[in-house]
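The aim of this short unit is practical: by the end, you should be able to scan a pair of folded records and say something sensible about each. We start with the first protein, listed as its amino acid sequence and then its structure tokens.
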Amino acid sequence: MARTMGLDYGDKTIGVAVSDEFGWTAQGVEVIRRRKPEDDLERLRQIAGEYEVSDIVVGLPKNMNNTIGPRGEICIAFSDTLRDALQLPVMLWDERLTTVSAQRTLLEADVSRKKRKLVVDKMAAALILQNYLDSKSKR
């Protein structure tokens, strides 16, 4: 069975999560420190191959009024590039408040600020992917 990869695409990092083989649960995999676009795409290609990924979900940061701002446009452009580079289906998923939710969960778990910074993007990617997987299972 194939897995779905979830991405939280940011200015400095890309949070990466992958589903289990059944598409039920999302696990954070890593945080890619962004360098050159071709390096980022190569690392994503490696992860996709390693986990036998069949499709990808990229978090789309919408404004609270449901419009798409500059950050959303950047994510749309990235998802198009990713689709071309990896030759896999790429969906966009509304990610409003996932980073906020990840931060809150880590705060409640009393994780230090330094450690939060290291894992929040990976956790946000897992939340984006989990929300997507949950929506698919309800159909």
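Turning to the second protein, read its sequence before its tokens, just as you did above.
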Amino acid sequence: MRYKLAIFDLDGTILDTLEDLADSTNYALSVYHMPEHTIDEVRWFVGNGIHKLIERAVPKGSSDEQIEQVFTTFKEYYKDHCAVKTRPYDGIMELLKTLREKGILTAVVSNKGDFAVQILCEDYFRGMFDFAVGEREGIRRKPAPDSVLAVLEKFQISKDEAVYIGDSEVDIQTAFHAGMKEIAVTWGFRPESFLKENGADCIVHTPEELLKVLQKYT
């Protein structure tokens, strides 16, 4: 295989987290008697971190104080409810096992809070990733390339030897800013037409197709 390192987004790429995100968002909103949202609405709120999720979910005109209250409540609730309905997408475990059997390093770089990334990777993918990191204070979130570049440095892998895999425009932009190849998946939170409009280099529809692309992508 050409690549030595495959870096994955989390939400919408390896894990279907949408229902737990929506439930936790709506719980936090309900505490403050704010209107709740459908799953499809929440789908378009995610991608830029959980604070931005809450900013988009609260009613327009909400004060900074209200946003922070909802955000704090969301974090507290989601920490204990991030793995209720969440599940790996079909074929993801088999894909990761195959990559590891072939000696390919695997990592996760997500805009989800780092506390949740660690919990979910441990719960669902124990031993399947060489490194996983989420949003942390003082580190620019995607689409800034900071965390992706830090992974490359950690493993002393060049940009040409790594690929970034995600499901959204944020992931496409992240790979571009990092100077890396990217692969966009259609089973996540954004439709294929949207990915094409946002400049996806390569689009795959199943984990099996993703593996084939990783094996011959040039």
